[in-house]
Amino acid sequence: MVSDTPAQHNPAAYRIRLGCRFQLDFPQPTPLIAMLNVHYSRVSELTHADHVTTQPSVPQSGYRDSFGNWCVRMVAPEGRFSIGTDTTILDPGHADILPGDAVQSPVERLPHDTLIFLLGSRYCDTDLLSEEAWRLFSKTPPGGERVQAICDFVHNHIRFDYLAARATRSAAQAYAEGTGVCRDYAHLAIALCRGMNIPARYCTGYLGDIGQPLPYPPGDFAAWMEVWLGGKWWTFDPRNNTPRQGRVLIARGRDAADVPMILTFGTNTLAGFEVWSDLVS
Fold first, then answer.
1. 80-100, pLDDT tens digit by residue?
2. Ranges of CATH 3.10.620.30 domains, the chain
């Protein structure tokens, strides 16, 4: 299921330039938290640190949240404010690895730290979807096949529409409306997995167009999920629903509420936005 690209012949061939830039207008000085750095699990692959840079320059302080994601605090001044990162990562070039016949663990045997990813959350309203999950998937083989069946369903059920993006849409609403963007695909698949007692967590990061046919759309961040099967976490992407190359994690959480790119504590206007994840020769 991996497309024929140079990385198949040379797994160490990928050098990917990653970065983003937000242009924000603030009516007054406003505190914010930025979650833009590459996840700590991949920091060793960066050619140089992906420091958060701003214009104008402001004092910053960093911390790790309860999921281990790196967060940067600052106060944006009044007026136009630019914030972003830029780095290069040495990517192994492999496509997402499928779990094969990885088994689903009974709830009583799950590790303690996976249990939070069975619970309902802000955007993954399992209380509204569990009964439907069992109706749709109770007859599918537990494990990797069941998760893939959920991804197939979500991929076909939701129609991608960038203009229909809505920051408040929950998994149940995405199911009812049948439209959304990558975060809605992820939220619905996560909620259905949790309804079937499969731990699932939300992921956000970079996913460029390596191995994909031209023309490439404008860059954007991507959302996918990880599920716990056979004693480890596996990547599933219900939006694209096929193994992809060049996926670079930024943050994980219960849903999108845990991993906002920019969280501001006051009003602002997004004046510009750019994301890049480009293969470097």
1. 999 999 999 999 989 999 998
2. 107-258
Question: Is the omega angle on the peptide bond into residue 141 within 30 degrees of 0, that is, cis?
Answer: no
Query: How far apart are the C-alpha atoms of 105 and 198, rounded to whole Å?
Result: 8
What's the pLDDT band for 211 if we cut at 50, 70, 90?
confident
CA distance 252 to 240: 19
Half-sphere exposure of residue 191: CA atoms within 13 angstroms, side-chain side: 29
Q: Where are the beta strands (DSSP E) in the chain?
A: 14-26, 30-34, 53-55, 61-64, 70-76, 79-91, 159-160, 179-180, 200-207, 221-229, 232-236, 247-253, 262-264, 269-279
Q: Which two tokens stand for residue 63?
A: 């911390």
> Which listed CATH number (3.40.50.300, 3.10.620.30, 3.30.360.10, 1.10.10.10) goes with 107-258?
3.10.620.30
What is 16-93+262-279's CATH number, 2.60.40.2250, 3.30.720.120, 3.40.640.10, 3.30.70.1110? 2.60.40.2250
- Give tens-digit pLDDT for 4-43: 333 333 445 689 999 999 999 999 999 999 999 999 999 9
The predicted structure's pLDDT at residue 14: 87
Buried b (16+ CB within 10 A) or exposed e, 63-96: eeeeeebbbbebebeeeebebbbebbbebebebb
Contact 105, 75 (CB under 8 A): no
Question: Is pLDDT larger for residue 209 or for residue 150?
Answer: 150
